[in-house]
Amino acid sequence: MKYIDEFRDSALARHIADNIASEAEPHRAYHLMEFCGGHTHAISRYGIVDLLPANVRMIHGPGCPVCILPVGRIEAAIRLAQIPRLILCCYGDMMRVPTAKGVNLLKIKASGADVRMIYSSADAVKIAQQNPARQVVFFAIGFETTTPPTAVAIQQAQVLGLKNFSVFCNHVLTPSAISHILQSPEVRELGLVSLDGFIGPAHVSTIIGSRPYEYFAEEFQKPVVIAGFEPLDVMQAILMLIRQLNQGRAVVENEFTRAVTRNGNVKAQFLVAEVFELRRAFEWRGLGLVPYSALKIKSCYAEFDAECRFQVPVLSIADNKACDCGAILRGVKRPQDCKIFGIVCTPDNPIGSCMVSSEGACAAHYSYGRFREAC
Amino acid sequence: MCLAIPVCVEQLVTEGIAVVSLGGVRKEISLALVDDIEPGDYVIVHVGFALQKLDPAEAERTLALFAEMTANSVGNDDAIR
Ligand code: SF4
What we know:
By secondary structure, chain A is of the alpha/beta class. Chain A has 16 helices and 13 strands. Chain A folds into 3 domains: about 5-65 and about 180-255, HypD, alpha/beta domain 1 (Rossmann fold, 3-Layer(aba) Sandwich), CATH 3.40.50; about 70-175 and about 265-310, Rossmann fold, CATH 3.40.50; about 325-370, no CATH class. In chain A, a hairpin with a 3-residue loop joins strand 11 (about 280-285) and strand 12 (about 290). In chain A, helix 1 packs parallel to helix 12 (about 230-245), helix 2 (about 35-45) packs parallel to helix 16 (about 360-370) and helix 6 (about 120-130) runs parallel beside helix 7. The longest helix of chain A has 17 residues, at about 230-245. In chain B, about 20% of the residues lie in helices and about 35% in strands. In chain B, strand 4 and strand 5 form a beta hairpin. The interface between A and B is large, with 60 and 39 residues. The complex binds iron/sulfur cluster.
C-alpha cells in the first residue's frame, strides 16, 4: 500500500543501518527511549534492535494507553458495567486488562453485563441513539490521538439532545508523562536509567505538533526526534538522534514531516480545549500520581460526564505483586526481567497490562523478540 | 490500539464523512477533525477519524533522506578508524 510499503523497504533499511553503524561512536553508549507503544511494536516486529550496534540501546517508554491505565480505573469501569441495564462501550484492548483479582471486562460480559467493543467513539453515540431507554457509557482512554474523537462524540451527543450518553474520561497527556520520567528519582538521583534522547510519538504529534517537545529538549537538554511508525522512520530517527548527540545538540527534530507540523492540528486542539480541562493529578500505572497529566470533562458538559452522573468509585489498587509492568513502563526493567514473563503471563492469559495490547512492551517482546536474546 | 495508517480517501459521502480504502477494504470514517479533504488525498486514520492530511511532497523528501549517504562516508572514507 502506498505510503506504507516504501517505508518498509529492506534495502533502504540496511542502508540506514550502515549509516547508524558508521556514525555511532564506538566508545559511547546511546540510550534512546521510544515513548510510544506504536514504536515499541515496530521495533519488535521488524527486529530493528538486530540492526543496531550493541552500544545503541532502545528503552521502551510508557506510551501505550492501555498499559498505563491503573487497575483502579479498570475496576471502576467494571463496577459501572455492573449497573443494571447500563451499556459500557470501550475500545477492544481494554476488554482484556485484568484487575488484581483476575477479573476483566470480557469476563464481566460473559457473566451478563452489557459490554460492547467499539471501533470508534461515534459508534458509542449510535448505540445511545438506538437504546434511548438505557444508559450508555463510553469508557474513553488514550493519549492526544483519541481525545479529539471523544470531544466530537460529546458535542454530537449534545446536538442530538441525548440524555442517556456519558463518557468515563481517562484521557492522558504525553508531554507531562515525558517530563515526569525525566524528573523521576530513577533517572535523576539513582541513575538507574540513563536516557540520552527520545523518539517522539507519531500520531500524538499529528495533533499536538512538535512545539510541545521544545520545552523539555531545552529544559532537560535531551534531543527529541518525532518519527513515523514505519520501520524506516524509526531507524532514521535513531540516526538523527545519534547525530544530535555526537554534535552535542539537544533540539526537537521532525522525521515525520509528511504528517506532523510544528503547530499540529489546530482544529482538533480547539475542540479538545472546548470540551476538556486539566485534572490536577492522575494516577498512571508505573508512574504513580502525575500532576496535570490527564483531562476531565468541563463542567459545562457535566451531563455527559459519567463521573458526575454515576457513583464512580475512586480506587487506587496495587498491581499484581509478581508483575513488573510498573518498572517496565518507567524504563527500569525489560520484559524478560519479569519472573513470570512468558511462563505464567502470556498474551492469552495476561497478568499485567503490558501483555494485553500489542503495543505493550511485554506483548511485543513475547510476539517478536523472545527467541532472540540479542539485546 | 495506537496503530494508525495512511489511507486514500475515495469518496465524500455526506458532510464530514468519507469512504476510504484500506488496501481494498472500504470503510467510512469521520472528517470532523480535518479541513479541505478531497478524493485522492491520503489521511492518517485512527479510531475512525482522520487525524491529519498526508503531505505527498514531504513523504518524497523523507524517502530521499533515507537514501542519503552517511555524514562520515562522504569525506572520511580514508580516515580509517
Ligand atoms: S510479563 Fe506480564 S506480569 Fe510480567 S511485567 Fe509483563 S505484563 Fe507484567
